[in-house]
Amino acid sequence: MLIDFSTITTAEKQQWLNHAVAPRPICFASTMDKEGNVNLSPFSFFNLFSSQPPIVIFSPARRVRDNTTKHTLQNVLEVPECVINIVDYDMVQQTSLASCEFPKDVDEFVKAGFTKEPSSMIRPPMVKEARIKLECKVNEVKSLGEEGGAGQLVIAEVLCMHVDNDILGDDGKIDQRKLHLVARLGGDWYCKVDETNLFKVPKPNTQLGIGVDALPKGIRNSTILTGNHLGMLGNVHELPEINPAFEDERLKNIIQYFSINPADMENELHKYAAELLDSEKITEAWQVLLAGDND
Prior knowledge:
- The protein has 295 residues and is α+β, with helices and mostly antiparallel strands.
- It is 27% helix and 22% strand.
- The strands form 3 sheets. The chain has a 7-stranded antiparallel β-sheet. A 3-stranded antiparallel β-sheet has the order 1-11-12, with no helix packed on it. It has a two-stranded antiparallel sheet with strand order 7-8.
- A hairpin with an 8-residue loop joins strand 9 and strand 10.
- Helix 7 packs antiparallel against helix 8 and helix 8 runs antiparallel to helix 9 (282-291).
- The longest helix has 17 residues, at 262-278.
- The protein is elongated, with a radius of gyration of 26 Å.
- The model has no long low-confidence stretch (mean pLDDT 94).
């Protein structure tokens, strides 16, 4: 299916993109106008873009239906400061409630049941219930257009960060398992980050991976190993060799029972290697695969 964006409406573009470009972190922004009126609103067009200087960007885009601008955008143009309160699962329903388009004189902190907490370096208050708060100065607001749906990029520099001690690990850093972040998908859909869906992908930070193209042909063209499996195997910095000291009872049984039929033995070895890779046992998987590799 090909979707030509020149032939569809802005609302349709938004619908397709919101489902495809996801999950998106949520910027729960507290801002203030020049009279001191506070606004609190969530935005999923948001991310981290620089560490030095520490820059985050979110976009209170012009409304698609009537091309009006949001109070958050109006506020940061008057008072170039904001707090980005990071949303976790315990506050997602209240955060959604704060997205209602209340009149400008209505305080979303009150409507959504959140508690104001004074910031350390800027004027807008923080959301006390948020486990992470970023106090920011707004360096620039860059408009991407004047039509409905046009992004208005708020380029914010992080001045300081407040972190709840309850989400820290023994090393004094944020423990990802203790912070149940939520993110926006398309429509009414969200997703929750917790230990049931967390996984690690080792990064080849200091040494280059050999790559999928360097894998032996029989492994590279496997009908059993998936692209993820091949990516894990290609992430080693040099092609492993058979380790004579490696002992594995299941491997011995596979070789014993399937040795008369090389194709069947290869399938069994690849099935076993896939199980090992799914358990992140990459070294063992390599030994199993090398036992049957004839290339």
